[in-house]
C-alpha cells in the first residue's frame, strides 16, 4: 500500500482569525517574502506533497458574503500566484498550488500565470480555481457584473443555488480553457530549424477555439506547454454540485468530512460524480481537509486554541473538522479516516508557523514510523508525487500519422 | 557642474525579430534559468531594473502563425516574482496592458510584487492592443487610439487610488492592542467614464507606495501621458540628434503638471556590439544584422509592406516589380506600421536602385537600428556622451542573444562608466525609486 499524501494550506497567520496574536506568530511579516519562504522551507522539510496558498479578490470578513469592519483580525492579502512563484527558486520538490478566482478574472491570464509557475518551478505548479461564492461582494471591485446582495444563508435559497450552479458552470468552462491553452503548444513545437529558418513548427501550435455559454477564447497560448504538460488542478468541494465540478475539471479534490462516516459518504459521492461525469483516465485524488492545532503535551493545543477563541470573542468556526491534540493523536485520526478511501489530507495549520512545524516535525515522523508516509521525495514533479503521469497534449498527433 | 548619472536597464530578449536564435550560444527563451542568468547579470552590473515585454497572442502573417522568430514567453509578473527571490536590489518591471485587464487586479498584482521584492516593482503601461488580441479575452473589444489613452490614463489613476487606499500606517499588526489594521483601510470608490468601482482593496501599501510607472509611446498622446503620469519613458530615439529633440520636447512638458524635469527619466531602447577594435566591432555588427535578417525574414518583412504574398521572389534578387496592395495588411499581433506604405515602398525602390541592393540588403539597410558599436572604451564614451548631452538619461539595453547577451557589456563597459564616475559603483538604496532618484509617489492619502 502506498503512503498517504499530505498538503499544507497556508493562509494569513494561520486559519484561526486570532492566530496573528499568538506569541509565536509574525504579524508584522505577513506581507514580506521572508515570511512565505520560511513557511515553504518548513513544508518542504516535512516532505509534503504540496502547499496551497489561499486567496480572494476581496478583503477577509468574519461574515461570509458580507464585508465587516473588524480591525482585530488579519485584513489584507497578497496575490497567491505571485507568492507561489516567489517560492519556486528556494524550494526544489514541493508542489506550489495557488488559488485564483474564476468569476472576475481572465482564463488566458490565469493559464499563462500557472504555466509560468510550472516553468519557474520545473514542474511543481498547481492551481486551485475558486468561484466567487461568498465573495460576490467582490463584483463592485470590477464593475463588470451585478450580483444580488448575498448575505449569510443566501446561497441556500433557490435563487442562490441557481446562481451558484451558474458560477460553477462558468468555472468549468474556465478550467477547460486553461487546460486547452496548456496543451495548445505541442511539446516539440519549438524546432529551431536553421536549415529552413523556422523557429516554430506552426503545425504543432493550435488554436483552441473555445466558444462556450460563458466564455470564448481563440488561443493558442503565448506560453509554451508547461513542464508537467498539465499542472495539477485542485478544487475544494462541499457538496454534489462542486463534486461534479471537481469530477469534470480537477485532478485532486479537497473534501471536508467531520467523521469517518462523513468521509465514507463524501468518497462515495465523489465517485458517483465521477461516474455521472463519465470521467476517464486517472480517478480524482481525494484529500480531506482538517484544521489542526498540535502540541506535544496532551491538552496544550486545546488550551492554546481556547485562548485564541477568547481573544477573538467566539469559538473558531470552520467548514472543515477542527483537530486539537498531539501529533500522535492526529496520526491515529488520519490513519482511521484514510480507511474511508481517502488518498491524503490537506492540513490547515491553526497558527503559523507553529502548527506547520507541528505537522512537519511532529506528525510526519510518526507517520513515517508507521510506514504511512514517504521518507524522501521520490519524484521531481508535483504530478509525480501523486503518481499521476505526464499527459500527452490533446492536440498532439503521434509521429508519422500527421496528415 | 556635476556629471549626470547614467541609468541602465536590461530587456529580456525573448519574442523579438532581433533575437538571433540561430546562434549556437542562443539559449532557451522560456527556461527559468535564462531569466535568472540575465537578471543576475544586470544586478551584477548595478542596473536599475530588468524589463519584460508582454504578448497576449501569437503573431500571424497572412493568417498563419509566424514561425521565423523566437516565440513563446511566460507571464511577466509571475516570472518577476520568482526572480525577486534570486535578486536583492534589481528593479523588476512588467509590461501589463490596460485594455485586457482591470485596474483592481493589476493594482493588486503590482502591489504584491512590490511587497515581495521589498520595493522593486515597476509597471510598463501599454495601450496598443487590438481586436485580434481581444479574441483571447472576455471583453473582446477594440479601442481606437484616443479611447485607448483615455482608458490607460484612467486605469493608472484608478490603480493609484487603490494603492493609496491603505495609508502608510493602516497596517498596525499590534497583538497587544489587538489591532491588525485601522478601520476602513483599503476603502476605495472610483467613478469615471471608464471605470465605476468601489469596495475594499486587499493589499496594504507597498514599500514604494506606488510601483514605478513606465511608459513607451512616441505619439503626442503618448508623450503627454508620460509627462503627466510616468516615472520612466522608453523611447526609440537611439540617435543623438533625434534623442536630443525628443528629450527636450518631453522634459518641457513636465512643468505644466507641476513636475521637475528630473522626475521623468528618458531611456531609449538600444543595442550594442563590442569588438577588440572598431573594425572588429563593425564586422560583428554586420554579421549580427545578417543573422537577424535571414532570407526568409527579409521576404516576410517586405510582405508586411507590400501587403501580398512575395514568396516567389528571390531574397538575393531585386525588389518585387509588383505594386503593393494597400488594403488591410497581412501582419497581426505586433506593433503596426502607421503611415503611407505606398510612399515607403517608393522610397525603398529608389534606395535599392541607387545602391544596387537586393531584397535582403535593402531590409538590412532599412531596418538597421544598431546603436553603440565599438571597443568597450569607445562604447562607454558614446553612452556617456549621449547622456551628458541630454539625449537621454540612460538606456534600456536590448541584447541580441538570450540569455548571455549582456555579459560582455557588464564585464567590459560598466566598469569604464564607473571609472568615469557617471555610473554607480553600488546600489545606494533598497528600492527602484532609490535607484532612479525620482523620489516617492505623489500625494499619498494620510489617515486623518
Automatic annotation (TrEMBL), chain A:
Keyword Flavoprotein appears in the UniProt entry: yes
Pfam (any one): Bac_luciferase
Alphabetized InterPro entries for the sequence: Diverse_substr_monoxygenases, Luciferase-like_dom, Luciferase-like_sf, NTA_MOA
Annotated protein name in UniProt: LLM class flavin-dependent oxidoreductase
Domain Luciferase-like residue range list: 31-303
Gene3D superfamilies membership: Luciferase-like domain
Keywords tagged on the record: Flavoprotein, FMN, Monooxygenase, Oxidoreductase
Lineage of source species: Bacteria, Bacillati, Actinomycetota, Actinomycetes, Streptosporangiales
Organism: Actinomadura graeca
Family, similarity comment: Belongs to the NtaA/SnaA/DszA monooxygenase family.
Amino acid at each position: 500500500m502506498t503512503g498517504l499524501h499530505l498538503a499544507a494550506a497556508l493562509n494569513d497567520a494561520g486559519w484561526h482569525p486570532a492566530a496573528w496574536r499568538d506569541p509565536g506568530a509574525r504579524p508584522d511579516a505577513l506581507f514580506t517574502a521572508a515570511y512565505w519562504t520560511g513557511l515553504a522551507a518548513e513544508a518542504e522539510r516535512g516532505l509534503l506533497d504540496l502547499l496551497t496558498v489561499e486567496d480572494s479578490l476581496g478583503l477577509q470578513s468574519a461574515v461570509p458574503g458580507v464585508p465587516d469592519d473588524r480591525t482585530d483580525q488579519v485584513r489584507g492579502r497578497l496575490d497567491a500566484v505571485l507568492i507561489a512563484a516567489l517560492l519556486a527558486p528556494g524550494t526544489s520538490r514541493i508542489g506550489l498550488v495557488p488559488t485564483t478566482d474564476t468569476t472576475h478574472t481572465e482564463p488566458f491570464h490565469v493559464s499563462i500565470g500557472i504555466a509560468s509557475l510550472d516553468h519557474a518551478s520545473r514542474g511543481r505548479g498547481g492551481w486551485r480555481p475558486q468561484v466567487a461564492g461568498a465573495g460576490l461582494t467582490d463584483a463592485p471591485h470590477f464593475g463588470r457584473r451585478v450580483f444580488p446582495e448575498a448575505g449569510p444563508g443566501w446561497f441556500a435559497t433557490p435563487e442562490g443555488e441557481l446562481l451558484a450552479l451558474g458560477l460553477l458552470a462558468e468555472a468549468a468552462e474556465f478550467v477547460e480553457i486553461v487546460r486547452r491553452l496548456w496543451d495548445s503548444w505541442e511539446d516539440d513545437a519549438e524546432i529551431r530549424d536553421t536549415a529552413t529558418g523556422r523557429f516554430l513548427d506552426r503545425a504543432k501550435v493550435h488554436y483552441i477555439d473555445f466558444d462556450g455559454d460563458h466564455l470564448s477564447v481563440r488561443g493558442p497560448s503565448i506560453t509554451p506547454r508547461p513542464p508537467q504538460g498539465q499542472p495539477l488542478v485542485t478544487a475544494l468541494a462541499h457538496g454534489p454540485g462542486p463534486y461534479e465540478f471537481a469530477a469534470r475539471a480537477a485532478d485532486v479534490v479537497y473534501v471536508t468530512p467531520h467523521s469517518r462516516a462523513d468521509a465514507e459518504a463524501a468518497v462515495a459521492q465523489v465517485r458517483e460524480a465521477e461516474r455521472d461525469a463519465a470521467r476517464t483516465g486517472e480517478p480524482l485524488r481525494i484529500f480531506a481537509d482538517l484544521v489542526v492545532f498540535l502540541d506535544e503535551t496532551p491538552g496544550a493545543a486545546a488550551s492554546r486554541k481556547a485562548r485564541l477563541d477568547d481573544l477573538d470573542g467566539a469559538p473558531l468556526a470552520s467548514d472543515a473538522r477542527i483537530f486539537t491534540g498531539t501529533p500522535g493523536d492526529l496520526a491515529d485520526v488520519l490513519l482511521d479516516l484514510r480507511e474511508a478511501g481517502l488518498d491524503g489530507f490537506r492540513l490547515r495549520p491553526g497558527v503559523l508557523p507553529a502548527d506547520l512545524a507541528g505537522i512537519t516535525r511532529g506528525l510526519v515522523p510518526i507517520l513515517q514510523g508507521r510506514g504511512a508516509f514517504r521518507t524522501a521525495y521520490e519524484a521531481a514533479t508535483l504530478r509525480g508525487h501523486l503518481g499521476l503521469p505526464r499527459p500527452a497534449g490533446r492536440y498532439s498527433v503521434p509521429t508519422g500519422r500527421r496528415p | 557642474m556635476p556629471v549626470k548619472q547614467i541609468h541602465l536597464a536590461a530587456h529580456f530578449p525573448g519574442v523579438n525579430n532581433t533575437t538571433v536564435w540561430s546562434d549556437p550560444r542562443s539559449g532557451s527563451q522560456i527556461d527559468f534559468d535564462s531569466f535568472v542568468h540575465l537578471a543576475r547579470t544586470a544586478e551584477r552590473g548595478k542596473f536599475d531594473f530588468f524589463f519584460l515585454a508582454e504578448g497576449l497572442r501569437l503573431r500571424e502573417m497572412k493568417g498563419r502563425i509566424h514561425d521565423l522568430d523566437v516565440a513563446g514567453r511566460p507571464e511577466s509578473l509571475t516570472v518577476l516574482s520568482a526572480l525577486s527571490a534570486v535578486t536583492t536590489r534589481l528593479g523588476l518591471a512588467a509590461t501589463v496592458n490596460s485594455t485586457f485587464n482591470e485596474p483592481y487586479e493589476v493594482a493588486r498584482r503590482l502591489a504584491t510584487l512590490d511587497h515581495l521584492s521589498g520595493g522593486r516593482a515597476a509597471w510598463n503601461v501599454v495601450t496598443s492592443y487590438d481586436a485580434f488580441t481581444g479574441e483571447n479575452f472576455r471583453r473582446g473589444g477594440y479601442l481606437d487610439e484616443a479611447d485607448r489613452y483615455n482608458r490607460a490614463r484612467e486605469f493608472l489613476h484608478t490603480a493609484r487610488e487603490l494603492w493609496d487606499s491603505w495609508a502608510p500606517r493602516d497596517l498596525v499588526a499590534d497583538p497587544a492592542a489587538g489591532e491588525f489594521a485601522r478601520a476602513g483601510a483599503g476603502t476605495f470608490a472610483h467613478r469615471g467614464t471608464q471605470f465605476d468601482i468601489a469596495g475594499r482593496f486587499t493589499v496594504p501599501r507597498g514599500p514604494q507606495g506606488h510601483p514605478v510607472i513606465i511608459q513607451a509611446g512616441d505619439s503626442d498622446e503618448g508623450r503627454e501621458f508620460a509627462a503627466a503620469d510616468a516615472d520612466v519613458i522608453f523611447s526609440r530615439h537611439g540617435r543623438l540628434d533625434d534623442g536630443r529633440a525628443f528629450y527636450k520636447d518631453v522634459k518641457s512638458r513636465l512643468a505644466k503638471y507641476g513636475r521637475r524635469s528630473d522626475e521623468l527619466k528618458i531611456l531609449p531602447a538600444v543595442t550594442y556590439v563590442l569588438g577588440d577594435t572598431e573594425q572588429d566591432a563593425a564586422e560583428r555588427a554586420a554579421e549580427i544584422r545578417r543573422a537577424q535578417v535571414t532570407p526568409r525574414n527579409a521576404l516576410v518583412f517586405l510582405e508586411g509592406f507590400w501587403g501580398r504574398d512575395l514568396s516567389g521572389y528571390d531574397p538575393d534578387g531585386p525588389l518585387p516589380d509588383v505594386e503593393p496592395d494597400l488594403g488591410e495588411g497581412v501582419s497581426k499581433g505586433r506593433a503596426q506600421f502607421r503611415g503611407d506604405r505606398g510612399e515607403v515602398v517608393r522610397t525603398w525602390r529608389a534606395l535599392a536602385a541607387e545602391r544596387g541592393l537586393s531584397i535582403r540588403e535593402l531590409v538590412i539597410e532599412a531596418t538597421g537600428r544598431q546603436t553603440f558599436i565599438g571597443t568597450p572604451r569607445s562604447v562607454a564614451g558614446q553612452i556617456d556622451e549621449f547622456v551628458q548631452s541630454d539625449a537621454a538619461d540612460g538606456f534600456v539595453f536590448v541584447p541580441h542573444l538570450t540569455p548571455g547577451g549582456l555579459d560582455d557589456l557588464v564585464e567590459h563597459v560598466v566598469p569604464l562608466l564607473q571609472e568615469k564616475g557617471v555610473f554607480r559603483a553600488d546600489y545606494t538604496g533598497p528600492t527602484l525609486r532609490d535607484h532612479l532618484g525620482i523620489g516617492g509617489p505623489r500625494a499619498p492619502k494620510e489617515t486623518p
